[in-house]
Backbone:
């Protein structure tokens, strides 16, 4: 039987996103538009809108829709802002950012995932610049970024990423904690001052790199 993905998408947005308190209209509109089923493995398409992360291969996951929404909303994005993502994974978060109208740069450590995400994004018409490498070191060439989103868990805040963040209300969201549980931390940079806001508990795969976890 054909799966009505549009219906599943609308239901996901209603029950998982809006009902849990996400109000940013741009975020909601993007979630209604991006076909999440395109970012999950073929055999998991029917679960694409479930309230859970899903495996995408290489031991990695596409995050739960609500967590993607919460992180995206926390950045208070505006159109044309330059955003750096660390941990491309499936490319779903990149697509949400691009759909909002941001200029998106994304770094992925695992080449096969980066290539697959690039293909999916291109097919759907999203213009996202993807680099294969260690995202804990950021992407100097296009810095500073208005916003930075790290979608893997770090033991601490990678200093290089903070240095590549705009001093003009730049926002960086990152899960910080141990290997098994973390808190979502939002950093706001105003000149040399950094404000830190804890948005609560979460669980991510580890950020492995020079300024993250060791292999
Ligand atoms: N944002 C993704 C979910 C990513 S899961 C999505 O929407 O699907 C986290 C990803 O971070 C994994 O693909 C993992 O390979 C990657 N990763 C881990 N450490 C990294 C690093 N140092 N630099 C770049 N990517 C990293």
Residues:
């Amino acid at each position: 039987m054909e799966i009505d993905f549009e219906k599943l998408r609308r239901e996901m947005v209603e029950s998982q996103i809006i009902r849990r308190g996400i109000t940013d209209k741009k975020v909601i509109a993007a979630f209604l538009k991006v076909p999440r089923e395109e970012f999950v493995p073929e055999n998991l398409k029917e679960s694409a809108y479930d309230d859970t992360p899903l495996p995408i291969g290489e031991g990695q996951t596409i995050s739960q829709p609500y967590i993607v929404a919460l992180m995206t909303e926390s950045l208070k994005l505006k159109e044309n802002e330059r955003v750096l993502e660390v941990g491309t994974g499936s490319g779903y978060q990149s697509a949400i950012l691009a759909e909002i109208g941001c200029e998106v740069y994304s770094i992925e450590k695992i080449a096969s995932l980066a290539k697959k995400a690039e293909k999916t994004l291109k097919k759907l018409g999203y213009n996202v610049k993807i680099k294969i490498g260690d995202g804990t070191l950021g992407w100097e060439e296009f810095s500073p970024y208005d916003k930075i989103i790290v979608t893997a868990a770090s033991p601490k805040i990678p200093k290089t990423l903070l240095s590549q963040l705009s001093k003009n209300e730049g926002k960086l969201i990152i899960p910080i904690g141990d290997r098994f549980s973390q808190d979502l931390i939002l950093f706001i940079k105003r000149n040399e001052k950094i404000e830190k806001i804890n948005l609560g508990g979460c669980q991510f795969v580890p950020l492995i790199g020079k300024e993250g976890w060791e292999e």
Q: What stands out?
A: Residues 105 and 129 are 5 Å apart (CA to CA).
